[in-house]
Every structure is written in structure tokens, then in C-alpha cells.
Design brief:
The protein is mainly α and about 240 residues long. Helices cover about 85% and strands about 0% of the residues. It has nine helices and no strands. The N terminus is likely disordered. The site of hexadecan-1-ol (PL3) has 20 residues, from helix 2, helix 3, helix 5, helix 6 and helix 7.
Length: about 240
């Protein structure tokens, strides 16, 4: 058993100390990583705006509510643009568009096919849970300007996740199979996006394991609320791991 003076205990507290240490926001390494992360977030917010407007064409009776969600995404995009400007970083938008391309393509195809369930799973569940986890993990290690903005944003993202959750819950029986299939196809994409962003996120003192954990909590809770059993959810996770 480790005692207070044993090396195991020392190692654990050293690790905790580094985890909460703030990065050097003015270093070249930080700015380089931020140019991609900031672009991903700006592009993600822009695409989220467009996706909610598109969803309004599939759910015309809720187009006004969806327009309201889209307006929030526009505000988020402007907020994160200001965060990059504040640090003197130019966002690498080409990188970000490539980063989102596979998920973007799947949303556009589903939209063309009128598959509202798939569109909701991609935008309101997967992307919002991804954003919630990223913003949660970012807040404690952000510069003071970005922290304030991100704290305001993360509350809205729960509203967005909740919108998708409630619609899917109300239509659970007719949506179940399409949700399973959309999860099987798109959850692996989120997983590769997390892998792809991990190195840059680490420079911002955000750990991949924390991002994954927070994402899974938000996503599983949503699936549970919608009506999936624990066994369904385990199957859905396994389907993504098998790819
Ligand atoms: C929907 O409202 C927004 C979609 C944005 C997706 C964000 C994904 C972010 C992944 C990288 C983590 C960095 C967080 C830092 C914030 C400046
Ligand atoms: Fe947003
Ligand atoms: Fe959102």
C-alpha cells in the first residue's frame, strides 16, 4: 500500500500539478496549435449554424426554434473568432474544413435523402457532445478572455443537445433503427477526429482521455434519455469500436 512518502503518491501529485498548470499563451508552440484548434471550433460553429438552418427545412413546424439555435451558433462563431484575434493567432481554416469534411459529407447526404433522424444524430447529439466535452476540458486551461467566452457558449450547447434529445425521444420507436445505423457510421468519425486533434489539444493542456470521457458521458446520457437501454448503448459503442 502506498504511504504518504512513497514514490507512487509523489508521482500522482506531480501529475495533478502539471494537469492544472496553465500553458504559456504567448509561446510559438501554443499559437501554432491554437491556429488549428481555433479554426476547428470556428468551422464547427459555422457548420452547426448551417445545419440547424437545414434542419428547419426537414422539420418546418419547428423552423423558427431551429433558427434561434442557428443564431446562437453564429454568436459562438464570432466569440471564438475573437479568442483567436485576442491571442494574435490566424485560424487555419483550410485545415478545419478538411477536418470536418467526412462528417459534413454525411450530414449533406442525409439532408438530401430527407433523413431527419440521421441529421439530428450527427448535429445535435454527436457534434454537440463533442463541443461540450471540448469546452469543458478547455475552460480550466484557457486564457482569461477565452475562458469567459467559452463558459457562456457551453450553456447554449446543452440547449442544442437537449433539442435533439427531446425530438428523438418523442419519435423514439420510429427512429431507433436509423439512429443505430447513423451511430455505426458516424461515431467512428468522431473517434478519428478526437485522435486527430489530440496532439494539438495536449499543447493547450487538454488531455485526450479527459476529452473522450467527457464526450462519452454527454453522449450516453443523451442516448439513455432518448430511450435506449444500457445494453443498446453498449452495443452502439461496440459497433463504433469494431470499425
Ligand atoms: C456546435 O455548437 C459547435 C461545434 C464545434 C465543435 C468543436 C470541436 C472541438 C474539438 C477540439 C477541442 C478544442 C477546444 C478549445 C476551444 C477553443
Ligand atoms: Fe455552438
Ligand atoms: Fe451547438
Amino acid at each position: 500500500m502506498p504511504t504518504l512518502n512513497s514514490p507512487e503518491v509523489a508521482a500522482i501529485s506531480d501529475q495533478d500539478a502539471t494537469a492544472i498548470q496553465l500553458p504559456d499563451f504567448s509561446s510559438a508552440a501554443y499559437k501554432d496549435a491554437y491556429s488549428r484548434i481555433n479554426a476547428i471550433v470556428i468551422e464547427g460553429e459555422q457548420e452547426a449554424h448551417d445545419n440547424y438552418i437545414s434542419l428547419g427545412t426537414l422539420i418546418p413546424e419547428q423552423a423558427d426554434e431551429l433558427k434561434g439555435l442557428a443564431r446562437m451558433e453564429m454568436k459562438h462563431m464570432k466569440g471564438f473568432t475573437a479568442c483567436g484575434n485576442n491571442l494574435g493567432v490566424a485560424a487555419d481554416m483550410d485545415f478545419a474544413r478538411t477536418f470536418f469534411a467526412p462528417l459534413h459529407g454525411n450530414f449533406q447526404q442525409a439532408l438530401k435523402d430527407g433523413k431527419v433522424v440521421t441529421c439530428l444524430l450527427i448535429q445535435a447529439l454527436l457534434i454537440e457532445a463533442f463541443a461540450i466535452s471540448a469546452y469543458h476540458i478547455y475552460i480550466p486551461v484557457a486564457d482569461p478572455f477565452a475562458r469567459k467566452i467559452t463558459e457562456g457558449v457551453v450553456k447554449d450547447e446543452y440547449t442544442h443537445l437537449n433539442y435533439g434529445q427531446e425530438w428523438l425521444k418523442a419519435n423514439f420507436e420510429t427512429s431507433k433503427d436509423e439512429l443505430m445505423e447513423a451511430n455505426r457510421v458516424n461515431l467512428p468519425l468522431i473517434r478519428s477526429m478526437l485522435e486527430e486533434v489530440a496532439k494539438d489539444a495536449a499543447v493547450l493542456h487538454m488531455e485526450k482521455e479527459d476529452l473522450i470521457e467527457d464526450f462519452l458521458i454527454a453522449y450516453q446520457e443523451a442516448l439513455n434519455e432518448i430511450g435506449f437501454t444500457s445494453r443498446d448503448i453498449a452495443r452502439m459503442a461496440a459497433a463504433a469500436l469494431a470499425v
